Amino acid sequence: MANAQNTPKLPDENDNQGLQAYLRNGISAIHNNPELQLQPSVYMDLYTAVWRLTYREDSNKGVRSKVLYADVIYQDLANLLAEHLQLVVKRLQSQDDSLLLEAYLTEWGRYATAANRIDRLLNLINRHWVQRCIDEEKPGVYYIRTLHSVQWRYYIWDKISVAVIDSAQLVMEKDDGKAAKAHDMLESFASLRIDDSASDSDTQTRIRKSLEAPFMLEIEAHERRLEDIIAARRSQGHYVDGQ
């Protein structure tokens, strides 16, 4: 979608299926090439597609009102991420043990870049649908960035974490240039340098915590947010009961 000559035309406002397909293709293009800079006109068309799917004009009142396509956009994204990550995990599983850590970190970097871009693109969904679902304690709904983290944990980390941790330990045991690079990358995740004097099990625990930090922090923040909402409602209920 980044090439203006090959960019499809933004579908009509009332073409819901066309708008969904247009947005889905745009999000897929970002994930397939997160470093590629979209032309401003392409980005605005994608944002307009989100707007058109999220709002409709009430002809009787002459105002725009919310419709239920936000959940469709959200589910489309969840499905797209699942498909994308299943391809990623296959690529990672095909790597040699000595190369797996570097490949994993590369894939995570690309994925995180795409997640940030898509989070901005779908800001309307976050503000007007996801927030309401969270406030209502609807299970399985996350902010767009957090959804990316949840999907990464399920489709990538849960499948290959043991192999990635083993690869990290193997790389660092070589005590060469790659070992130093591995230390630096892990530190950038969790500000935690691996202690070479630690036992194998302790070292693996530290590696795990470092590698989990980028996506688990998002997930844990979501869980704390839900706990705060539940606690506030219980407190309010106790206050009302005491009146």
Question: Could you describe the 3D structure shown?
Answer:
It is a single chain. Helices cover 74% and strands 3% of the residues. Helix 1 packs across helix 2 and helix 1 packs parallel to helix 3 (69-93). The protein is mainly alpha-helical and 243 residues long. A two-stranded antiparallel ribbon has the order 1-2. The protein has 8 helices and 2 strands; from the N terminus they run H-H-E-E-H-H-H-H-H-H. The longest helix has 42 residues, at 200-241. The chain is globular and about 60 Å long. It comes from Fusarium sarcochroum. This is Cullin N-terminal domain-containing protein. GO terms for molecular function: ubiquitin protein ligase binding.
Helix-strand blueprint:
Elements: H1 16-32, H2 40-54, E1 55-58, E2 63-66, H3 69-93, H4 97-121, H5 123-135, H6 144-173, H7 177-190, H8 200-241
Antiparallel strand pairs: 1-2
Helix pairs in contact: 1-2, 1-3, 3-6, 4-6, 6-7, 6-8, 7-8
Q: Biggest sheet: strands, sense, closure?
A: 2 strands, antiparallel
Total number of helical segments?
A: 8
Distance between the termini: 60 Å
Strand order of the largest sheet: 1-2
